[in-house]
């Protein structure tokens, strides 16, 4: 059970099985996928009592998103497969709840339309653009231009995908690409692609810090790296001058042997905490998970699959329900822990479950 189990059940009833599997699945044996949720169950919170004060106000300042909710919409591909309004529905729901939307490069709606939908609801809605660095820097540069002219306020560069993870469920279901009638709309009219058509997103082990340097030279937008797990890479990211890190194992969809992000967050916080904003995603399903991540050094967290379940279950209303539920649950969890907001959350509130502190 988690906060979104009913929405997941509804989504599963409505979606074609192969599409449900594409969203739900992980790589290989799905160890990392399972561990992402289990890792939070291995931790407990030591609440403080009788502290007085107003109800908690969980707002945070993030790059290109002042006063945002501490739960972001993580970038996920292909929203039109969940609901006909696709990314537009997600964007409206995120904007209405003051939630940062990280719009995927692999979206089925172009980023300018996504940002426009969010800004119709709220003129200062923050949308970040997620991209995979492409071997041809011209292609990356064109994508960045698109995100900039759309009005995105930050870039999220996903670095954990030198190749595709081994998605066993998709292989079994023969789900290899978007079905006819859908397109990865951001990939239209790019250098090397067919005129008027879309080019493929390339994943390549050639991609290096050098490509990142080239990207950073072409944009003034803040750049966050998504998919860092090793503290040494966190140090390198600081040395490169990036604006934030999202500790993530891609929802268990890339390296199946990767640890759960919450299990490595303390090491990364010890290595570089305080020098730049740390975010985390993977397995966050309750307000207490958010509180745990913030206590261990994250500024904010992302949720991926729950948004897809809300979208499939009930479009914009369903995504709104997901974001409202987790928002209220964060306030409840903070109140139960006796904290007034993110600034009060410190690592000494978190203990391993089953450890009596003797
Ligand atoms: C993803 N994720 C992802 N990440 C990214 O950087 N670009 C992308 O296009 C996608 N696409 C994508 C599709 C689907 C169906 C899923 C489930 C995930 C990873 C995503 O941003 C995030 O890291 C995880 O989803 C977080 O884990 P939870 O909340 O789903 O457990």
TrEMBL record:
UniProt-listed Pfam families: FMN_dh
CDD domains, A to Z: alpha_hydroxyacid_oxid_FMN (cd02809)
Keywords: Flavoprotein, FMN, Oxidoreductase
Cofactor requirement: FMN
Entry protein name: Alpha-hydroxy acid oxidase
SUPFAM superfamilies reported for this sequence: FMN-linked oxidoreductases
Coiled-coil residue spans: none
FMN hydroxy acid dehydrogenase domain location: 1-355
Organism of this sequence: Saccharopolyspora gregorii
Similarity comment: Belongs to the FMN-dependent alpha-hydroxy acid dehydrogenase family.
């Amino acid at each position: 059970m988690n906060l979104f189990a009913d929405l997941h059940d509804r989504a599963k009833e409505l979606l074609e099985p192969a599409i449900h599997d594409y969203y739900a699945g992980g790589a290989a044996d799905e160890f990392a996928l399972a561990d992402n949720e289990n890792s939070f169950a291995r931790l407990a919170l030591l609440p403080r009592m009788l502290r007085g004060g107003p109800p908690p106000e969980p707002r945070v300042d993030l790059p290109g998103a002042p006063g945002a909710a501490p739960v972001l919409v993580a970038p996920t591909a292909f929203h039109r497969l969940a609901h006909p309004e696709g990314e537009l529905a997600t964007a409206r729901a995120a904007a209405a709840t003051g939630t940062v939307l990280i719009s995927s490069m692999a979206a089925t709606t172009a980023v300018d339309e996504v940002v426009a939908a969010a800004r119709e609801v709220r003129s200062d809605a923050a949308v970040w653009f997620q991209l995979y660095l492409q071997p041809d820097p011209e292609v990356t540069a064109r994508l960045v231009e698109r995100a900039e002219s759309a009005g995105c306020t930050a870039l999220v560069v996903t670095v954990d995908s030198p190749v595709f993870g081994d998605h066993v469920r998709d292989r079994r279901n023969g789900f290899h690409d978007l079905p006819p009638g859908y397109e990865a709309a951001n990939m239209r009219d790019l250098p090397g692609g067919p005129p008027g058509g879309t080019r493929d997103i390339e994943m390549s082990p050639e991609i290096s810090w050098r490509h990142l340097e080239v990207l950073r030279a072409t944009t003034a937008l803040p750049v966050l790296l998504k998919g860092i797990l090793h503290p040494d890479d966190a140090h390198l990211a600081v040395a490169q001058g990036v604006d934030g890190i999202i500790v993530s194992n891609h929802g268990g969809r890339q390296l199946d042997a990767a640890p759960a992000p919450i299990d490595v967050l303390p090491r990364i916080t010890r290595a570089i905490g305080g020098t730049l904003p740390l975010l985390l995603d993977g397995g966050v399903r309750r307000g207490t998970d958010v509180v745990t991540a913030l206590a261990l050094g994250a500024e904010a967290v992302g949720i991926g699959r729950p948004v897809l379940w809300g979208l499939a279950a009930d479009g914009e209303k369903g995504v709104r329900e997901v974001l409202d539920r987790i928002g209220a649950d964060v306030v409840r969890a903070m109140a139960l822990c006796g904290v007034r907001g993110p600034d009060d959350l410190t690592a000494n509130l978190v203990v391993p479950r089953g450890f009596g502190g003797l």
